[in-house]
């Protein structure tokens, strides 16, 4: 009888969340029932097409720069991840998640390092409330040529940050804010502008054109070096990419910097 009541409660919660704009997958994640999900983001300008490897085997293939793969199910437990030149299983860079868990989302990012390919890893526990329709946002710094960054998500009709606090503060190279293992930041849907500054500064080094952020969106905002040889880049020459989570594969959205025609 208890099992029947539990199933009924879960069905009811799924129906309510769907009516509010969520999904049954969100219910499964929130309750820790959904199988672990993983996807890959290619954030190395001018890099070759790669295959995404999980435990030594190609999970997703032929991913080019700005490519964002669909979420895919993986098993729980210790998991090794890597990426390799397409058609190869020799990693260009690799890492591991020590204890992959149900209900979590995992992101693997191909990152340009100072001496070669590098990797970024994010464990997202997906602690979204069952009735929440808010968008989820996280920042990641894949710019070896940048200082720590503050990212401001501000309404498009008021872009002054003089008295604003960063939405995502002190995003350091190869790290996320909120940090891996912590939940994303939640914001309401709307029309926004993204502004990046050197951490602690109020002088923008990047300011996007206005864009729409939908309710229930799942965004990873990643800074990347402007394309070209890293040795030729000046400090803080960056672009911002938006990798949108979900099960519809689409390239990362590259936001246009409105400052100095960049």
From TrEMBL:
Name of a matching Pfam family: DUF4397
Keywords, alphabetical: Signal
InterPro entries reported for this sequence: DUF4397 (IPR025510)
Signal peptide region: 1-19
Domain DUF4397: 37-152
Protein's recorded name: DUF4397 domain-containing protein
Species per Swiss-Prot/TrEMBL record: Paraburkholderia azotifigens
